[in-house]
Amino acid sequence: MSSTPAASADDIAKHGWNAVPVDGNAILSGKPYLHKPSPLRAKDIPFPSDDPIVTRVQEYAKKHLIEQTYNHSMRVYHWGYSILKDQFPEEFGKLSLSTWALACLLHDIGTTHDNLRATLMSFEFYGGILALNLTKELGAPQAQAEAVAEAIIRHQDLGTVGTITFLGQVIQLATIYDNMGINPQIIDSVTRDDVNKAYPRKGWSGCFSKTIREENGLKPWAHTTHLGEEDFPEGVKNNELMKPYDSQGL
Length: 250
Fold this sequence. Notes:
Layout lengths: L8 H6 L4 E3 L2 H4 L24 H13 L2 H21 L1 H4 L4 H10 L6 H5 L5 H15 L4 H12 L9 E3 H15 L8 H10 L5 H15 L12 H7 L13
Antiparallel strand pairs: 1-2
């Protein structure tokens, strides 16, 4: 548990600051899942629409993200909710769903056409700064705004050495599930079917693969290249788990 003077122990847990292994395989103890996932329908997964900051950020995301990216962000919220509820029940009872929602809604804000061209920075880093400024402007407390920013900055920081915030690990697990089909058994098939139906992919695999290549072309130093200049966009494009759903909504 952190002893930083910047936040209380309750805020550390509430906003997902607890340090966990960055290695997703380690946090799952090398197994497909820690606990058998339960079937969930999208309509049964609560979203914190009663939080005015979340509502404002959701409006911002809808305005600035293309539909495919917005739907991806909402699927990530739902995948993460399932992962939290079933795999990490102790943390689930303490984590703010508002903080989780904010991280999901803004994690790819750096990938918009304008934002990719507004900076020399990698999209995750610039997106984290945008999210930090936006959430603070809307009145989010420091511990929440910074948790969201840190998770966004590190959401593609996959590796095996070191630690990451719990919030950052969950968004990694949820995004790599949606983007590449990694840890396919961590979500029940009923949940996978229903969430994809509620927030259709509309060709997301090809769409995001193209965005990765676009950033790498604009910024050959981009952080995304650490995942493999060919391996990552090809892995996204050829996501076998989500292939049956990828044309839904087109």
